[in-house]
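Title: Comparing notes on inverse folding

I've been comparing how different people in this forum approach sequence design from structure. To keep things fair, I'm posting one structure and asking everyone to reply with a full sequence. Here's the target:
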C-alpha cells in the first residue's frame, strides 16, 4: 500500500497536469516558451518578497509573476528592444534579484533546491485544495476565453476585427499563467514549471487533429508523466520533480516514432486543424 505522502503527491501532480495541458497548448501555438520561462524565473523573486513581507508564498509568487507580465507589456509598448531581448533581461534579472534578496535575509532559512526543483512529496492537503481550486478557476477561464484565445493565436488582427478583444484575452492569459506558476512551484520547482507545460503539449500535437483534442491529450500525457515520474522516483530514488519532467520527455520521444504519427487523422469534422 502506498504511503500517505506518496498518494498526496500523485493527487497533486495529476491535478496540476490537468491544468497545465490547455495552457501548454496555447504556449506552444503562440511560440511563448521563453515567456513562460521568464514568468517561472520570477517566482524566486516572489519567494523573496513573501519572506520579506511575511505573506503567503503562493501570493508572493503570483504578485511577482504579474509584475513581470506588466513590465513586459510596458516595455514592449516603448519599442526600444525586441521581445526576446526583453524576456532575456527580465528572466535573468528577476532570478538574480531573488537570489540576492534571499542571501541578504540571513534570518530566514530557505531550501533553494526545493524551490528550484520542487518537492512534490511534501505537499499537504491544503496544497492539494489550492491546486484543484486554482486549477478549476484556470480551466473555467480557459473554457470561457477559448475561442478568443484561439482566434488571436491564428490571426490577432482578424480577432480584433471580429470584436473578440485579443488584448483582454492576452491579459487574462497572463493572469492564468501567473496563477499556475504560483501553485506549481512546490511540485516541480521554478526551473521545471515551463517544461511540464510545454513537453506534454508538444507530444500531444503528434496525435491531435483539432485544438480541443490537443488540449485534452496534453492534460492526459501530463498526468501520465506525473504517475510514471513519481513511481520512477520511488523505484530509483531520484528527485521527484526532475523525474516527472524526464518521464514527460520520454513520452515526447515516443511520440516522435514513425508509427506514432500514423495515429493522427488528417482532418477534423469541423475543419479546424491544430494551429
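Reply #1:
Here's my take.
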Amino acid at each position: 500500500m502506498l504511503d500517505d505522502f506518496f498518494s498526496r503527491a500523485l493527487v497533486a501532480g495529476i491535478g496540476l497536469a490537468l491544468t497545465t495541458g490547455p495552457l501548454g497548448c496555447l504556449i506552444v501555438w503562440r511560440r511563448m516558451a521563453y515567456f513562460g520561462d521568464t514568468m517561472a524565473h520570477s517566482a524566486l523573486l516572489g519567494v523573496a518578497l513573501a519572506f520579506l513581507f511575511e505573506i503567503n508564498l503562493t501570493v508572493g509568487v503570483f504578485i511577482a509573476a504579474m509584475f513581470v507580465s506588466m513590465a513586459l507589456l510596458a516595455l514592449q509598448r516603448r519599442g526600444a528592444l525586441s521581445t526576446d531581448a526583453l524576456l532575456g533581461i527580465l528572466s535573468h534579472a528577476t532570478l538574480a534579484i531573488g537570489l540576492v534578496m534571499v542571501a541578504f535575509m540571513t534570518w530566514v532559512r530557505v531550501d533553494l533546491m526545493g524551490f528550484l526543483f520542487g518537492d512534490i512529496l511534501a505537499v499537504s492537503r491544503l496544497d492539494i485544495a489550492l491546486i484543484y481550486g486554482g486549477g478549476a478557476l484556470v480551466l473555467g477561464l480557459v473554457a470561457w476565453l477559448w475561442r478568443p484565445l484561439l482566434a488571436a493565436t491564428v490571426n490577432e488582427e482578424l480577432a480584433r476585427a471580429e470584436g473578440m478583444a485579443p488584448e483582454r484575452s492576452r491579459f487574462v492569459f497572463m493572469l492564468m499563467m501567473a496563477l499556475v506558476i504560483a501553485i506549481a512551484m512546490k511540485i516541480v520547482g521554478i526551473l521545471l514549471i515551463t517544461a511540464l507545460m510545454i513537453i506534454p503539449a508538444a507530444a500531444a500535437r503528434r496525435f491531435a487533429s483539432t485544438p480541443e483534442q490537443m488540449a485534452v491529450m496534453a492534460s492526459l500525457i501530463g498526468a501520465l508523466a506525473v504517475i510514471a515520474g513519481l513511481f520512477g522516483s520511488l523505484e530509483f530514488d531520484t528527485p521527484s520533480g526532475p523525474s516527472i519532467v524526464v518521464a514527460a520527455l520520454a513520452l515526447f520521444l515516443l511520440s516522435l516514432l514513425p508509427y506514432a504519427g500514423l495515429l493522427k487523422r488528417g482532418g477534423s469534422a469541423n475543419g479546424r486543424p491544430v494551429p
